[in-house]
């Protein structure tokens, strides 16, 4: 059902088009579980709404049933080409054979002990694989359950190890919803509204947003944002009181804004000069998504701490703080901990993810498919002036919608309508950005060239069907 309650009927679903076997759709739920008899079969919204908290915003009013490869099926059996990947999480697609098998095997063996009780094979294996996947000297891993938890832990590590209070984050960043993470998040005021007082000694500084504030000039963005940061250090908090600077190498929720390589290098140098820890939040951009294992590698820098979650276990809850050993030794035994973090089933999934990425050359695939995607979207931008910018790296690509290319006024309405219009074409993409005017493309990292071409075709069809600005104004 779409927002208006109309069932969308299209000829040829994404499943057909992406080559999924015909008749592959499973029937809607076979038997009503207790308490569901009032909900029409397969309508999980009616089932859920009376007792699920309304706090969670939802992109779609659809009921989802299962996934196979790169196709997500709703409860009516209709397939959607999934270029949202559960917000950069199911990077190997759905029902991935190796990941599913690893989960089943570990579930048959042992679900949980709490890592405080000792050592488990998949946990040690994944730590080793992660250390191998990070540049030297990043070799030590603390496992948690989610992105926000990882960010919280990284902030605690930085404060404890440096003995300094200050945390600097970037305007427009998203780091999570717990109190510490929300204190350094500003991609939307809704994440902060009503929650003051947030964490003290947190300072926000402008992000080098090349398109929105620096007229496409990366060097100007670097100079401007570094200047603002130095001003902050000169007037509000001395560098000697700063424990950490945390940055998303590519801002995610804030609008898929890549930080220029020159900026990340300047930031690394500033941190080195002042004994400040540089924390890279790779929760959305990491694990091969951008055509490198980590987005910071595009700038040739090595952070002190890396935050990992989302795609690490292809949908199983898992996060990781990675740093050099000495930092976690100085953090101190018992300084931090978790009951569920590093769950063996999640870690087994993570081992399968990391092995699959290596065996199938998926870092390179993300780079190649990303080049194809960005080229196709640039082609669309040439034909459609509603698109103001196409940017990103690898398979983390944003398409920004504007009302006017000269003023760059954000076009939230077109972008939000487009998310729904794409779904009507059986393509799943999401929007992001402070003004919700950026479509984010997050296809699985093992996506094929044909799927990229098909996804862009469905996107273009959906966009063409929406009114042009002049039409909308004249309507
Ligand atoms: C860059 C970044 N950091 C942190 C988070 C928080 O992760 P979680 O939702 O798992 O707490 C997210 C989630 O979208 C993210 O994109």
Give a verbal description of the structure.
- This protein is of the alpha/beta class and 475 residues long.
- The chain folds into 2 domains: 14-96 and 363-474, Aspartate Aminotransferase, domain 1, CATH 3.90.1150; 98-359, Aspartate Aminotransferase, domain 2, CATH 3.40.640.
- Helix content is 37%, strand content 16%.
- It is built from 16 helices and 18 strands.
- The chain has helices spanning 14-17, 44-48, 85-88, 97-109, 121-133, 147-162, 179-183, 210-213, 218-235, 261-274, 325-331, 344-359, 362-383, 412-424, 449-465, 469-474; strands at 64-68, 71-74, 79-82, 140-144, 166-170, 202-205, 242-247, 250-251, 257-258, 277-281, 305-308, 319-323, 387-393, 396-404, 409-410, 427-428, 430-432, 438-441.
- The strands form 4 sheets. Strands 4-12-11-10-7-5-6 form a 7-stranded mixed beta sheet, with helices on both faces.
- Strand 2 and strand 3 form a beta hairpin.
- Helix 5 (121-133) packs parallel to helix 12 (344-359).
- It is globular.
- The chain starts with 13 loop residues before the first helix and ends with a helix.
- The model is unreliable at 1-29 (pLDDT under 50).
- The site of pyridoxal-5'-phosphate has 15 residues, from helix 6.
- Pyridoxal-5'-phosphate is lined by residues 87, 146-148, 151, 174-176, 248, 252-253, 281, 283-284, 309.
Keyword list:
single chain; alpha/beta; Aspartate Aminotransferase, domain 1; Aspartate Aminotransferase, domain 2; 18 strands; 37% helix; disordered N terminus; binds pyridoxal-5'-phosphate
